[in-house]
Amino acid sequence: MQVSDFHFDLPDELIARFPAEKRSESRLLVVADKSSDSIEHKIFAQMPDLVTANDLLIFNNTKVIPARLLGHKLSGGKVEVLVERLLDDNKILAHVRANKALKPGTQVILEDKINAEMIERRGDLFVLKILNEQNSLSLLEEYGHMPLPPYIDRADEQADKERYQTVYGEVPGAVAAPTAGLHFDETVLNQLKAKGVPMEYVTLHVGAGTFQSIRVDNVEEHTMHAEYIEVSQRVTQAIKDCKARGGRVIAVGTTSVRSLESAAQFSQADQLIEPYQGDTQIFIYPGYEFKVIDAMFTNFHLPESTLIMLVSAFAGTETIKNAYQTAIEKQYRFFSYGDSMFIQNQNRFVKAD
């Protein structure tokens, strides 16, 4: 299986560089079943019509931190830091761009306020020790820039601090948004609650590695970056209850999919899913057998990315190719600030009542 099998051509004007005026006014492409003529076009505000009280919605409650910092070395050379992970109160693991790679002991000044020292290199990443008295998270919240993806080729704005964030995010740690959740607003969530749709939350702190291109030709040779996840006992029990009543486990976003399928992968052979806390490097591409997920909401993903491979594994490669081509023809908006899809596992195409 070649990476090029997942290529498509996208007109530049379809890349969403700003969010829709209102979250739930984005468009929603619905793949109703496996046939090529079954695509429906809706507005995201209509998504509660696609689920029932029998189903279970799983959200990722990670919160994006302002992870991009600009600054300079004490010697004067420019430095750009993109935090990958908070290691503790005063150490961060980060991608660093500079004219020369930082050496241990090199000190930098970021945003004219944060003093840091490079203390260790881990592969392509650097461990920086924050020398200020404030902890790393509070400094990032005060001085950092929102880490917009590379294809949103503009500087971050004040509005991005709200819009590049889900309304339900509450666990700081992500350096990229779980973008399928950006369409949910309080009105939609309240409609789901009124309808009696069960909702639970996992945590996956999205890393900057999610934007890294695949550097091999053969899909099977790719190694995924690691990301931290938490799947609780409450969530696993809710999933088992949903399966027992014949409902669908519906993931909001690929991060929720990866969290749940990872927990299932680490479970005992006789268990559908068990609680899990730790890193995952799960790589889902066509041929993967899903253990937990029956349907999902997701955005439109980059060509030749691990995420388009995941949704292709989920609904079928030809189904996704057809859906993406339709979205392009209908002028849907793509990527993080773009429109949404609702798709189902190729073996579980069942319409909601």
TrEMBL record:
<comment type="similarity">
    <text>Belongs to the QueA family.</text>
</comment>
<comment type="pathway">
    <text>tRNA modification; tRNA-queuosine biosynthesis.</text>
</comment>
<dbReference type="InterPro" id="IPR042119">
    <property type="entry name" value="QueA_dom2"/>
</dbReference>
<dbReference type="Pfam" id="PF02547">
    <property type="entry name" value="Queuosine_synth"/>
</dbReference>
<protein>
    <recommendedName>
        <fullName>S-adenosylmethionine:tRNA ribosyltransferase-isomerase</fullName>
        <ecNumber>2.4.99.17</ecNumber>
    </recommendedName>
</protein>
<comment type="subunit">
    <text>Monomer.</text>
</comment>
<keyword id="KW-0963">Cytoplasm</keyword>
<dbReference type="InterPro" id="IPR042118">
    <property type="entry name" value="QueA_dom1"/>
</dbReference>
<dbReference type="InterPro" id="IPR003699">
    <property type="entry name" value="QueA"/>
</dbReference>
<dbReference type="GO" id="GO:0051075">
    <property type="term" value="F:S-adenosylmethionine:tRNA ribosyltransferase-isomerase activity"/>
</dbReference>
<keyword id="KW-0328">Glycosyltransferase</keyword>
<dbReference type="InterPro" id="IPR036100">
    <property type="entry name" value="QueA_sf"/>
</dbReference>
<keyword id="KW-0949">S-adenosyl-L-methionine</keyword>
<keyword id="KW-0808">Transferase</keyword>
<comment type="function">
    <text>Transfers and isomerizes the ribose moiety from AdoMet to the 7-aminomethyl group of 7-deazaguanine (preQ1-tRNA) to give epoxyqueuosine (oQ-tRNA).</text>
</comment>
<keyword id="KW-0671">Queuosine biosynthesis</keyword>
